[in-house]
Structure formats: structure tokens, C-alpha cells
């Protein structure tokens, strides 16, 4: 199937390199005919993102650090000038101090709690509000979350709390923007080896555990997350908003490890 996104223009935020979940999403969207713009955080990522953007025929590549609101404004000003309107936004941005992605959640500092919440949660609300101004004929927004929002995952700590707030903001934003036919959803992805994922202590152990214990007996690829994103950003999901959709090889339905694992 091709052409599901033909005639649609969207912004992709959160590509760091070709392992990023945002890149998996962007490449699937491009295959379906979407026209894309990209943001990057800082010059070092910019040097990686530009050639990737070129691969999918995109010439709009803009700097954006969500801690600096003027750069967020500049992105939407540029899109208004170059495109005039927008059909979708992908927000795949998360950050927390890696010194606090280990040990106890209880030891989270006030400073890192606030920073994690602003970058990993509030930035979606801030981006969403600006995006709606360009979504004159409806639209679809997507953010990325993880099951550490609803269950205690070792070392995920303050990121889990930020993802819980992010998922709640998906529902509130869906309520706010529904009357404008703008839909807001999240994908809860299973663990993927990325730069952000590597910041979590023992990430490799968690990934291997999910690989062995998920119903599909594997972890997911960024292309599989991209496939689900195409559904949520295209008209195929026109009746779906405020949802958190799991793309995790089924891991979230399990109550305990496989019996073979327990006996080992
Ligand atoms: P990644 O490192 O490839 O992407 C994270 C992105 O966040 C980077 O592009 C980085 O530049 C951006 N970012 C961080 N701080 C920023 C800031 N201040 N301003 C602008 N951008 C900023 O890692 P990823 O795993 O692809 O992460 C994308 C999203 O997916 C994150 O929200 C992450 O929490 C989520 N997620 C990841 C996994 C996983 O296992 N990797 C699982 C579920 C959800």
C-alpha cells in the first residue's frame, strides 16, 4: 500500500540519527508520500539530520531546542512562511539527566524533575498549541511514550513520571482540539536501542528481557513504530483521538515472565 500520506505535510521533531524512532517514523511517512520538515537540537545533530532529510526529499531542516522557546516560535514562523498550513506533527523528544536514570526514583532532584518535565512533557503541549494555528483543515499529532508511565521499570524513574504526565496531556489536548478535527495520540513503544535509550542504566538487560518474554518473542523495530505512526497520522485513524497505542511486541499484556525464564 502506498500514497496514504499523499498531499500531507508534517513536522518531525526528534531525529538524532538513523537509529532514532523519529527517523523510523519519518521514513515510513515518506514512503507513503508525505512531505516532511525536520527539526534538530544543536549543530552536531544538525550534521546528521540534514543528509537524512535529503534522503526523503526534505529541504526544510530547522534548529530547535525546546528549552529555548524562541527556537520553537521560529520553527512555526518558518513553516507558516514556507508551507502556510500543516497536517501533522511528530514529537519524539525526551530527556533526563542520566545520573538520575539509575537507582531510586525517590532521589530525583528538584532541578532534574523540572527539566525532565519541561523537555519530555510540556514541550509537546507547547508545540501542539502552535501547530494548531497552522492546522486549518484538521490534523493529527503524535508523541512517543513508554510503559514506564504506568508500571515501575527499573531505572526509568523520573522519565516514567514525565511520560505519565505526557499521556495525560495527550488526553487533555485531544479534548481541547477535537472540535477543530485535530487528533492527538501517543505510541507507547517497546524498548529500542537509541541514543536516549542508552542513557537508562541496564537498558540492554531490559531490552533482552523483553525480547525473551514478549508474546512475539522479540523487540520492535523503528520501522514497525513507523508503520503504526502512519496509521495514526493518516485518515485511516480518523475516528481515533486521545489514545495511547502500544507497539511493543505485546509485552505490556504480560503479568509475569515466561515459566521457562523463571525455571532457568
Ligand atoms: P533519540 O535519542 O534518537 O531521540 C531523542 C531526541 O530528543 C533527540 O533527537 C534529541 O535531540 C531530542 N531532544 C532531547 N532534548 C531536546 C531538547 N531540549 N530540544 C529538542 N530536542 C531534544 O531516542 P529515541 O529513543 O528515538 O527517543 C524518541 C522518543 O521516543 C523519546 O520521547 C523517548 O522517550 C521515546 N521512547 C523511546 C523508547 C526507546 O526504548 N528508545 C521507548 C519508548 C519511547
TrEMBL record:
<keyword id="KW-0444">Lipid biosynthesis</keyword>
<protein>
    <recommendedName>
        <fullName>Enoyl-[acyl-carrier-protein] reductase [NADH]</fullName>
        <ecNumber>1.3.1.9</ecNumber>
    </recommendedName>
</protein>
<keyword id="KW-0275">Fatty acid biosynthesis</keyword>
<keyword id="KW-0520">NAD</keyword>
<keyword id="KW-0443">Lipid metabolism</keyword>
<dbReference type="GO" id="GO:0006633">
    <property type="term" value="P:fatty acid biosynthetic process"/>
</dbReference>
<dbReference type="InterPro" id="IPR036291">
    <property type="entry name" value="NAD(P)-bd_dom_sf"/>
</dbReference>
<feature type="binding site">
    <location>
        <position position="41"/>
    </location>
    <ligand>
        <name>NAD(+)</name>
    </ligand>
</feature>
<dbReference type="InterPro" id="IPR002347">
    <property type="entry name" value="SDR_fam"/>
</dbReference>
<feature type="binding site">
    <location>
        <position position="163"/>
    </location>
    <ligand>
        <name>NAD(+)</name>
    </ligand>
</feature>
<feature type="binding site">
    <location>
        <position position="93"/>
    </location>
    <ligand>
        <name>NAD(+)</name>
    </ligand>
</feature>
<dbReference type="GO" id="GO:0004318">
    <property type="term" value="F:enoyl-[acyl-carrier-protein] reductase (NADH) activity"/>
</dbReference>
<keyword id="KW-0560">Oxidoreductase</keyword>
<keyword id="KW-0276">Fatty acid metabolism</keyword>
<dbReference type="InterPro" id="IPR014358">
    <property type="entry name" value="Enoyl-ACP_Rdtase_NADH"/>
</dbReference>
<dbReference type="Pfam" id="PF13561">
    <property type="entry name" value="adh_short_C2"/>
</dbReference>
<feature type="binding site">
    <location>
        <begin position="65"/>
        <end position="66"/>
    </location>
    <ligand>
        <name>NAD(+)</name>
    </ligand>
</feature>
<feature type="active site" description="Proton acceptor">
    <location>
        <position position="156"/>
    </location>
</feature>
<comment type="similarity">
    <text>Belongs to the short-chain dehydrogenases/reductases (SDR) family. FabI subfamily.</text>
</comment>
<feature type="binding site">
    <location>
        <begin position="20"/>
        <end position="21"/>
    </location>
    <ligand>
        <name>NAD(+)</name>
    </ligand>
</feature>
<comment type="pathway">
    <text>Lipid metabolism; fatty acid biosynthesis.</text>
</comment>
<feature type="binding site">
    <location>
        <begin position="192"/>
        <end position="196"/>
    </location>
    <ligand>
        <name>NAD(+)</name>
    </ligand>
</feature>
<feature type="active site" description="Proton acceptor">
    <location>
        <position position="146"/>
    </location>
</feature>
<feature type="binding site">
    <location>
        <position position="14"/>
    </location>
    <ligand>
        <name>NAD(+)</name>
    </ligand>
</feature>
